[in-house]
Each structure stands twice: as C-alpha cells, then as structure tokens.
Amino acid sequence: MGLIKFVAMPTEEARAFRNGAPDAYGNRPETRVSSGPGVPCRHCLQNVEAGRNYLVLAYRPFPTLQPYAETGPVFLCADACERAEEGDVMPMLFRAAPDYILRGYGHDDRIVYGTGAVTPKKDICTYAHQLLQRDDIAYVHMRSSRNNCYQVRIERA
Length: 157
Prior knowledge:
- Pfam families: DUF1203.
- Strand 7 (about 140-145) and strand 8 form a beta hairpin.
- This protein folds into 2 domains: about 10-75, first zn-finger domain of poly(adp-ribose) polymerase-1; about 85-155, no CATH class.
- The radius of gyration is 15 Å and the shape is globular.
- The protein is mainly beta.
- The chain has 2 helices and 8 strands; from the N terminus they run βαβββββαββ.
C-alpha cells in the first residue's frame, strides 16, 4: 500500500452535474464537443475523446463557502464514466505537463500558508507525501501551474 492516494471527483457530484445540477456559480454545466487531448475529465481522470460531448462547469471542491474555497472551470465527461481508482501512482492524465501546483489545506479547509509550490511532475508524489506528514495538513490539491485549474485531490492512503 502506498503513502498517498489520488482521489477523483466523487461519483455523486459527477452524476448530479450530468443531471443538470447547478455548478458553483449556480449555472447549468455547458455541453461542448471535445477536440481531443486537453479535455481532462475530473471523474475518470482521462481525456474526453475527440467528438465526444463533455461538460464544462465552475467547480468548488470544498464543503462550504469560505474565503479559501477556490472555484474554477473543470471538464467532465457528459456521459457516465467510471470513476478513476484511488491509488498512489500519479494518473497517466497528468504526466504530460511538466509541473503542477501543490497546495496543502488544513482540517478547516483553508490553505496552509507556505505549502503552495510549483512542483515538477517527477516530484509530485514526494512533495505530497511530505505535506501529508504534517499534522496541520488534511489534504492536498493538485492544480494546473499554467491556469490554476483544479486537477485532483491527494490524501493519505
């Protein structure tokens, strides 16, 4: 068993958005047609194939509204897809970019200052593990280093 695990968007949330639930801004998710790579589904953690429909929506991966509850655009397969398995190996989807932002959050769902860092992909697992060794870190978010888009949550295994 690994020391960390990558955790995709919960199926209940993905299903709700597919059924028209409002996004973090109260809007219905928009339906688009994928042109291929670069449309990463946050539920199955795979790119939506070219020609397939996907949803784009404002996502807030936090339980409540508060000043540190960042919101941003994410993609989701428009049709039901299998949720990515939780595991300690970085999903293939994330291996194309050279780096990502990792940021630790406390048990109160607020950013733990000093934890945010642009991290080379080869160091993602190591840095996430280091952060999760701290008692004040409950989980880590991995975000795009170019656009700050939420990618995946990382937790203790």
